[in-house]
Amino acid sequence: MNFDLSDEQKMLKGEVARLLAEQAPYKHLRELITAGADWDRSLWLTMAGMGFLGAAIPEAYGGQGLGEVELCVLAEEFGRAVAPIPFFSSICLAAEAIQLAGSEAQKTRWLPALAAGEVVGCFAHNEGRGAAGDRLEATVSQGRVSGVKWPVSDAGVAGLAVVVAKDGGRTVLGLVDLAKADVARSRLTGFDQLRPHYRLEFADAPFEALAEADAEPTLSALYDRAAARIAFEQIGGAEACLWMARDYAMERRTFGRVLASYQAVKHNLANILVYCELARSNAYLAAWTLEGNPGRFPVAAATARISATKAYEIAARENLQTHGGIGYTWDANCHFHYRRARLLALNIGREEIWADRLIDGLLKTEAALAA
Amino acid sequence: MDFNDTPEEAAFRAEARAWLAANAQEYVEPPPQAWTEPQLVAKSRDWLGRKAAAGFATITWSKEIGGRGGTAMEEVIFRQEEAKYTVPHGAFITIGVGMTCPGIRKHGTPEQYQRFAPKTLTGEYIWCQLFSEPGAGSDLAGISTRAVRQGDNWVVNGQKVWNSWAHHADWGILLARTDPSAPKHRGLTFFVVDMKTPGIEARPIVQISGRTDFNQTFLQDVVIPDSCRIGKVGEGWAVAMTILMNERIGAERDGLIVSLVARALANRRGDNTRVLDSTDVRTRLARMYADEQGVKYFGYRLLTSLSRGEPPPPSVALIKLVQANQMQQANGYMMDLDDFGGLFEGPDRPHQDVTLFEYTFGAGLRIAGGADEVLRNQLAERVLGMPQELRVDKDVPFDQIPR
To answer: Residue A1 and residue B291: Cβ atoms within 8 Å?
Structure first.
């Protein structure tokens, strides 16, 4: 058994962490928010130049052809740094959808550009309040799509949208080239200030269906994969909170001793450590089953998501709490995670939805539950 | 990452499976009625002896000391395969084989090891632990039981408590104070004691579960020969720490939450909907499943470092912390799923006695072997590097500590 990252994966992790610490410190994130920026384009191009964006894209399509675990390692570091780049939208959703369901021509057309960071992809599924798929009114007719999609992450800088719509009675998944189509984009005022979300209005926009006819199985696979990647992103964020709280508590003195010497503080952080370790263990299983045991992947992905969401939310809240009043200020760094934890808890569906998927998966795969 | 066995591990697994299939037939099914204490003791001795004869009792030990010279992974693989049977394995086996023998090996003489280890491995000697006292639980170094030197012997007086299986044990491992004028950690000495020595009386304690498998043990003028002292006089704390560090890793527990899902699947509401159709039920079960699986695979991560020959990291403390809490929580929820009726055993619920027992046992497990609070301190101090708790009695002579 070897249930750990390989030495190469650990090196990759160290490398990306070092670059992010240099190029995207918290101070820089504050500047981006103040400027109303959509992203940090130069950081994005650095990541592309290092080959990180194409890590899991096959070499034939301009990627590095590394494994799923590498993509997870990257997601973890981006989460730790709250990296201001559209990695999740462009790589984990758009490029992933094309890899799962795209034709040879579509892969050849889009994957190299996505891997190189020249085009950013976004994923347009939700239509207003409620979960993705609760309402699906966007309609495809004769190769054109019409409808309103919101919230859509990172759509402000996207050149490509992967859109979910109805075509007759079927759910379809297809591509809209935003450089060519006239799609109205308006930025939403949202809770996470560092990852902009948009409302997209498609009016007879040219729509190119991804190869597979019925999109539901693709969507389900896409969301499972997204859950595994986000779990790593959440774990990175949760650990950042844990250590930020710990470091602050080791410095801050109160009543003549450091804050970290109080058992109430120690136990609070020990609990967060436990949540982080449980989440990491579940996330490793998800990453491993994705490659090594696909039959178990859906349950493992849902499990990882539930664990990691809990870890990040509690870590983000208690990090701010540990900081006391200073944690409530713009100049402290707690708020980036406090907001991001909420975004990641909801952007692919709330806990109940994943609990449903987990239980349904168990009913399908556990011998003890066979009728 | 690779969960699959290496070829060597797969070969070992096949060997373990074949041996178990040939030797554990009588334990394939759980016994229709729980074994009585004497039955469990007798069966555990026999089962350990059979494993020892086949080289499976102490897989990682070297051959010259009665082991197999195997790897930590082989030990785990055997345990995984063994867990498919309901084999008899009382806690006294772990105390003897898993804790006492390594302690004697590290701190005792070769003669002492030869005297005790072989008979422990064959099941001839079963052991109990005489550590905690009414006045010293989590603060183990605060024990008061006195051992006074008299020629070649020690005379011991005091009272011990929570001594699992002391009323059946052949031998005990004993921590006693030999120098009350030294600070508390430094005045302790470690002994092994024949439980049939005059002056030892083990009185079973009735636990909240109704079971009586642990004791308070009274020691009155108990004479222990100096040849039964393990390690130097005044260095008993180090021996006790070695023994307590031998935590079992990879004792994975799996399937409890799936059995809760099965219950929620089978149960119907008045309107004939399944209990499992409730979003609230699903969410709670999913959270518990995530915790159960998380701790299981955390164990696998520890095994990975173990298989590389690294010592267990201090985060190992979280395993018992999570499992004990989960045992309490999940079994409580198992009752909830049956509502009021969940509090009762009955013909339609043949295993409800296990649920009811484990809900109470979970309360004990949260205290035994490091209370939740002690474990959280350990995680904060050893993993996160936060300051140690204030220890106002640390450097004070024991006999000057207010009691």
So the answer is: no
